[in-house]
Amino acid sequence: MQESNIAWTDTTWNPVHGCSKVSSGCDNCYAERISRQYGHTEEPWTNEHAEANVSVRPDKLEEPYGLDEPQRIFVNSMSDLFHSRVSDEFISDVFAVMRNCPEHVFQILTKRPGRAAHIDLAWPPNVWMGTSVEDGRVVDRVDLLRDCDAETLFLSCEPLIGPLGEVDLEGYDWVIVGGESGPDDVRREMDHEWARDIFQQCRDQDVAFFFKQSSARKPERGQRLTVRNEEWGTYEQRKIQELPDLPEPTKRARRAMAEG
Question: Which of 4, 66, 178, 253 is deepest in the core (most CB within 10 A)?
Fold first, then answer.
């Protein structure tokens, strides 16, 4: 496991490595870039090369048991747990670990919400299930994940490369928004107007909102969103980084862990 610089999590855990690109949000995939940098990947992350690129890591399953204090854990920052190359049996093994660690919050993101919603699993309350939605072309993922039995559902609109339009957030607890990071000649810019629209929809539908970053060369830059101050009728830069409430079983597990 590795301590994370991502603002909405604490630690990353990767019992699966490698993925396949499925939409425009994947074009400049940071995970593929890191995998190449460290020599883990030779082939492009395409469906054609999925067998070579996607691998499960049973040796990493035990890692969460070694943590000394409660963490928010991003599951598979370097992959997608619901990739077709990952068997139902291995996904069940991952869920068994998460179920056995109720003091932690496990945050899973997928671009394959249909499989996540309909796989036969018992969802523990400490597992937050999210899907990535980078623009209006893939907003159907919101409806696909809504059928999932996870207690906490969320969206990651990162990298946000276009407006989403009107989104029904019924059943969702949290939305993360962020611009793309990377070199100037590759990075796609994010208009704050797109993010403001999502922010307002979250306010209207009582959903927690987390603005992670603007488009920038390096991650976690420009963490203030330009929003309108209704009282003064002007725009201001605000840091809005809300989290959904923890479920009661996770709160109890954390209290028990703190008490020894």
Answer: 178
